[in-house]
Design goal:
Layout lengths: L1 H18 L5 E3 L15 E4 L19 E4 L3 H4 L31 E4 L8 H11 L3 E4 L6 H11 L7 E5 L3 H10 L2 E4 L9 H8 L4 E4 L4 H4 L6 E4 L2 H9 L6 H11 L2 H19 L13
Parallel strand pairs: 1-2, 2-3, 4-5, 4-7, 5-6, 7-8, 8-9
Helix pairs in contact: 3-8, 6-9
Length: 290
């Protein structure tokens, strides 16, 4: 299936390049090295996953005028220190399309892919310790370890005050984000980014997250939420969630995590690498590059 998908990408991309004048090719796939353009036009590859989950071998990419970058400082630190790896560009969300802060209801929220590395059983434990209801949303995919985790670790922790509500539509997700007391991210792996944290902040909702990967970069401790190290600290942070100013959360999202900011930064990078590609002696980026 992966080979078939790569071939489809390759055929489509090469077909476009054969008939259109393209300034920059921007790739996002975890196997982007399998369909790099055949010419030496500039290519930018955004790496979204940790290196151990990539199919692409970053160190083997030798194509001229090909640059790569991560999506957070923590993520970038885990990428190979190569001369064609540029500084990270953080992800963004459509802040203006997300609802403005409303009066909060007394429930914590968590949602995402239901699997062991997301640690939602710890979020359920923290909500129980805090005496706060919790809604957990998300999909349980048909993988044995995901289903076993759901049956053995999630379902036994649910009940009247801590409910699993299944997959969430976009509209329902936004309604819940806009009314929750806080969003919990009890991740057990080094997250490269967190769109849901950015969306929560855009709704004025504090984020309480474990100190995992890029999460401490997104959550400003004591200002837009709390960064914690264990279940007990998460429970205490849930109790203190109403000390966080929703306006500060929204302002942080507008300033740091808007889709417009992300797009502007990418356009600046396209212009920069286009300039490098027209200099025959410079196929790799300077270390001080944007």
């Amino acid at each position: 299936m992966r080979e078939s998908a790569a071939e489809t990408q390759r055929r489509t991309l090469f077909g476009v390049l054969a008939h259109r004048s393209v300034d920059v090719v921007h790739l996002h796939g975890l196997d982007f090295d399998r369909y790099l353009p055949p010419d030496d036009g500039p290519v930018l590859a955004t790496i979204h996953l940790p290196p151990e989950l990539l199919v692409a071998d970053l160190e083997s990419v030798r194509r001229p005028h090909t640059w790569m970058h991560g999506v957070s400082r923590a993520h970038q630190a885990r990428l190979p220190a190569l001369p064609n790896v540029l500084p990270p560009i953080e992800n963004g969300v459509s802040v203006d399309a997300l609802p403005r802060p409303l009066t909060r209801r007394n429930f914590a929220l968590a949602f995402g892919r239901i699997c062991p590395e997301k640690g939602y059983h710890l979020g359920l434990d923290a909500a129980r310790l805090a005496g706060t209801p919790l809604l957990l949303g998300g999909s349980v995919f048909p993988y044995e370890d995901h289903q076993r985790y759901f049956e053995h670790e999630i379902l036994p922790r649910t009940g009247r005050d801590r409910r699993f509500v299944g997959p969430l539509s976009r509209a329902r997700k936004r309604r819940l984000l806009n009314s929750a007391r806080c969003l919990l991210i009890p991740s057990q792996v080094p997250e490269t980014s967190s769109l849901v944290a950015m969306e929560a902040l855009a709704c004025g909702t504090p984020v309480i997250a474990f100190r995992a990967g890029a999460l401490p970069e997104i959550v400003e401790h004591g200002v837009t939420g709390f960064v914690v190290d264990d279940v007990e600290q998460m429970a205490e942070a849930i109790r203190r969630a109403d000390t966080i100013d929703p306006a500060a959360c929204r302002a942080a999202a507008q300033t740091r995590f808007s889709a417009a900011r992300m797009a502007d930064t990418y356009l600046e990078r396209y212009e920069r690498i286009l300039g490098w590609s027209t200099t025959p002696s410079s196929t790799l980026a300077p270390s001080s590059s944007v």
